[in-house]
Each structure stands twice: as C-alpha cells, then as structure tokens.
Design brief:
Layout (H helix, E strand, L loop, with lengths): L4 H10 L7 H8 L3 H13 L4 E4 L3 E4 L8 H6 L6 E7 L2 H6 L10 E7 L17 E10 L9 H15 L6 E3 L3 E4 L2 E11 L6 E10 L26 H22 L5 H7 L6 E6 L2 E10 L5 E5 L2 E5 L4 E5 L3
C-alpha cells in the first residue's frame, strides 16, 4: 500500500469545510501546487467530494469529523483498539493477526479499499462518511455455538444507535440494520475453526452515517444514512460505545447463548408480523415474519403453519419489493 501520509494531512486541513488555496496548502505541506493537486486526486479516489474554485482553492462539501484514536480509547472500558485511516478491509486486518489478538480487540477505519459484505460482495466504503468497525472474538465452545451471533451484534448496534439519538433504527434478519424500511448498516461475521476446537471470529460492522451518491453497481438495494434522517452522531463516541457494548454482549452470549437476546430482538424487529419473502437462489418463498427462534432462525408463517429458516444463503425482503 502506497504512503498515505500527505493525503491524510491534506484531509485533516480540509476537514473544517472551509476553502484553502493551493498556495496555502503547498506552504503548509512543503510542496508545489501541482503536487497538491495530485494528492487531491487521491482524496477523490477515496470517495471524498472536493470542490475546486478558481481564486478560492479547495474545499470539502462540508466539515467532516475524523476518527481520533486517543479520543476513542479514553471512552473505552479497556484498550485493544486501533484506528487505521486507510485499510484494505477491517475484517481482513484482524483475520491476518488472529494469533496475536485477544477477545474484544478491535479496529476502525476511515476508508476501506476492499471492504467486504455478505457472500463476497464489495462493501462501498467512502472516506470519513461512515463507520467501519471490526472486532475479534475467540469462542471456546466452538463454531456451532456461534449460531445467532450476527443477531446479537445487530441488536447491540441498533440499541447503541438508538441511545445516541437514532430512535427509529431497527434490525433485519439475519445481519442488517434498517431505518425507514431502508438499509442503514450491515454486519459480516467471518469464522474459522473446526468442530471440537475454539472458533476464531471476526465481526465487521459498516454503518451509513453521511454517505452520498454510492456506486450503484455496488449498492444494489434501497439505502439510507443517518444524516438524511436528521440524526448527527459523534463518530468517536459511536465507535467507543459500540466496542464497549459488543464486548459486554459477547461475554453474555458466551455464557448464556442467544436466550437473553430473543426478547430484545423482537422489540427491534423491522419485519415482525409483516408480509415478507425469502430469496433462496431463484426461489421466492412468501409468508408472514414471526420473529426468531431459540437458535436464531427466522420463523416464517405460511397458511397458518410456522417454519424456522436458517442459512447464510437466505435473503429477507418485504413482499412488495
């Protein structure tokens, strides 16, 4: 990965949302205006809107709050968090370092060059406008005990967002957050380990805070961000609160499984008692969503008969979409 020092310094200067001339930026960073313009192109590649106005210089579309490792660490119950501004993938960063990690170790990033979603899909990850957070957890009971873990993380993330002012956030089985019936956040759980051994788990969360104009070839369903909903959340406070609450909830999950979370899920379930359809390959299975069972399976009612569905290749959608 090429050196990101100068572009990151440039972002820090422009983060105030004011205009800065090429000459001023060149003086501060010790380089020519032509060199500044080259680094401005890097910022645009990162998904940052940079305006160039003759006679005024460069400006972002608005101020951005940058992640600050010291600020986040000061709000954590215990350490174990890294802030890496530019990264390939927060999940991959932890997967590559699992042998040196302790349960609860986490990282956050401003920008992912190769963010991942479910089923190997790309996760659109523009710089500074969302939150990308991953956490490592070692589950001693093994891979089978991890069933339902993505639901726990969904619950925790929704509750944290609600506590910080986004009162209408809901969960969608098995690993999304919704707001106003549109996708606000996604969760990716990646697990290694075989039966009889402990499970090494990396949990990734991506939350849309102020994302604008995503790549339509990457974001293929209705989405929303908190800014559009009129909610502004301190990104550093959000990161710290998520880490603290995820750690506590994963300890509870380790001790008691999914049982303590069933009722919490039902209070947050965006599609509870609504007509939905399950997408499995080319199949569409209509029914009424009736919550989740003790194993985290989706309960679907068809003609008065209820059946539980589990599996990573199932997608849930409202019946009219």
């Amino acid at each position: 990965m090429k050196d990101q020092t100068v572009p990151l310094k440039l972002v820090a200067i422009l983060a105030d949302g004011e205009f800065h001339s090429g000459e001023q930026l060149g003086e501060r960073l010790g380089m020519s205006r032509a060199a500044i313009n080259k680094h401005i192109q890097t910022l645009k590649e990162w998904g940052i809107d940079v305006f160039t106005v003759t006679g005024k210089g460069y400006s972002l579309s608005g101020p951005i709050q940058l992640l600050n490792e010291e600020t986040i660490l000061s709000q954590l119950d215990q350490g174990g968090l890294a802030v890496i501004p530019v990264i390939d993938s927060t999940n991959q960063y932890l997967l590559d370092r699992m042998t040196t990690l302790q349960s609860g170790d986490a990282c956050v990033a401003e920008y992912q060059q190769a963010g991942r979603g479910r089923r190997g899909r790309q996760w659109f990850s523009p710089f500074g406008s969302n939150l990308y957070l991953s956490m490592y957890w070692r589950l001693e009971q093994g891979p089978l005990a991890a069933m339902g873990l993505s639901l726990v993380i969904g619950i925790v993330t929704a509750e944290v967002l609600q506590a910080l002012g986004a009162s209408d956030v809901r969960v969608k089985w098995p690993n999304d957050l919704y707001l106003n019936d549109r996708k606000l956040a996604g969760i990716l759980v990646e697990l290694t380990g075989k039966a009889g051994d402990a499970a090494n788990i990396v949990i990734g969360t991506g939350i849309n805070l102020a994302m604008r104009s995503p790549d339509a070839s990457v974001v293929n369903q209705a989405w929303i961000n908190l800014e559009e909903a009129g909610v502004t959340i301190d990104r550093n406070k959000l990161a710290a609160s998520l880490v603290n609450n995820m750690r506590g909830s994963l300890q509870l999950f380790e001790r008691e499984g999914l049982a303590p979370f069933i009722e919490r899920w039902s209070k947050l379930d965006n599609f509870l008692n609504r007509p939905v359809k399950l997408l499995i390959g080319d199949r569409e299975i209509p029914g009424i969503a009736r919550g989740i069972d003790q194993q985290g399976g989706l309960i679907l009612e068809q003609d008065g008969v209820r059946k539980s569905w589990v599996g990573g290749e199932i997608s849930l959608r409202p019946q009219d979409k």
